[in-house]
Amino acid sequence: ADADTDGGGGSFGVTLTSFKPTATAGGSTRAYAGDGLNLKTTTLTIKADGDANADAELFGLGLAGAVAVSNLIPVAKVSNVVEAYVGENRDTVRVTLADVEVRDTAGNRGTIVVDAVGSSLATATAGGGSGALGVAITAMKPKSELVGATRAYIGPKTDLFAGAVTLDAHELTARSVAEADGGSVGGLVGASIISAEAAASRLTEAFVGHHSVVDLGGFSLTAHAITDTGAAMAEASISTGTGGGLVGVSDLDVVSRVG
After folding, report:
1. What Å distances lie between residue 132 and 9, 41, 61, 187, CA to CA?
2. Using CA atoms in the order 132, 133, 134, 135, what is the torsion angle rounded to 10 degrees?
3. What 3-state DSSP class applies to 46?
4. How many whole angstroms separate alpha carbon 82 and alpha carbon 117?
5. What percent of the chain has pLDDT over 70?
6. Which of 25, 48, 226, 236 could form an S-S bond across to 1 if both were Cys, CB 3.0 to 4.6 Å?
7. Which residues pair with 181 in a beta bridge?
8. What is d(CA 6, CA 116) in angstroms, rounded to the nearest whole number?
9. Can you tell me whether residue 74 is helix, strand or coil?
10. CA quadruple 13, 14, 17, 23: dihedral positive or negative?
11. In Å, what is the CA distance from 221 to each residue of 119, 165, 208?
12. Over the stretch 125-172, which tens digit does the pLDDT of each residue have?
């Protein structure tokens, strides 16, 4: 999802109330083997691979000559859910057990591999502006938020007959990035508030659901939940750029939050 405001300009007594490009990426990516499955196979592999990107950008505002701008607030939010599972979904309300059996053609227990892979990025950027001669900006506040989940599991209320089971939930990318760039301003310019806020509380889970019955005949059940992207999950930054001629900023605020 992309939302862009680019290349605007104003001069000589213009008042602009708000620029608020908003990008939201949600939805679900699911792969599952559900109730009533009686599969004849040596190995059952279930994989869900979801990629979500929300990018809100506000660039290139050229303002001059007694211009007033109330708010520059790009907002990016990613809330997608990636799930791979056997049996019932985690939100099931059923009373009886779902039945899933995996055997090879000789009747021996079959192996199950459940793999959920998530790549999620929320980016909000305000920057590149220039202003002169009486430009007043009330607030520049890019905000990014990363929520949702990546899950691999045996569902609740599931009666499973199989051999070895592996549950892998892996976040390849999980980033919430907010960037504010004051740009180049000069000549009686006032920017009351410049802030950048990045928040991330995305879940990575591998589990066996409540009230499930798992018969693996002595074979192993292995569960991994990994968030190891090699970068900060939430990152906020402000660059004040260059300015001259009674430039005033009353409040600079940078917030990065995980959890």
Report:
1. 12, 71, 12, 5
2. -20
3. strand
4. 7
5. 77
6. 25
7. 239
8. 37
9. coil
10. negative
11. 25, 5, 10
12. 987 555 544 556 677 889 999 999 999 999 999 999 999 999 999 999
